[in-house]
Design a protein that fits this description.
By secondary structure, the chain is mainly beta. It has one domain. Helix content is 0%, strand content 39%. The protein contains no helices and 10 strands. Strand 4 and strand 5 form a beta hairpin. The protein is globular, with a radius of gyration of 12 Å. 36% of the residues are buried. This is DUF1540 domain-containing protein. InterPro entries: DUF1540.
């Protein structure tokens, strides 16, 4: 199984974000009621591997149409702001 890539991330204040690209090796998405990017952090120094493209390691949104056994099956996702929360914008309720 291939982990889906983070195609774009608009959370420019995240330490893993460089030029709208996620450089965390793997992010976790979801909490019980929201497809939040749990990996989002506003650390003061850059984070991640600048040579890596972010992937979805786990998704806790069991009600998403892309989710099978808490693993994302979308080919890629977009992360961005939904109001003031950094969410997986690819989330689609089943």
């Amino acid at each position: 199984m291939e982990m889906p890539i983070v195609n774009e991330c608009d959370a420019t204040d995240c330490a893993y974000n460089q030029h709208h690209a996620c450089h965390a090796l793997a992010i976790t998405v979801g909490e019980p009621a929201n497809p939040r990017c749990d990996t989002f952090t506003t650390a003061t120094s850059p984070a991640g591997d600048p040579g890596a493209v972010g992937h979805v390691g786990a998704c806790k949104m069991s009600d998403c149409g892309h989710n099978v056994n808490l693993e994302c099956q979308a080919p890629g996702i977009t992360v961005g702001y939904q109001e003031n929360i950094v969410d997986c914008l690819t989330y689609a309720p089943a």
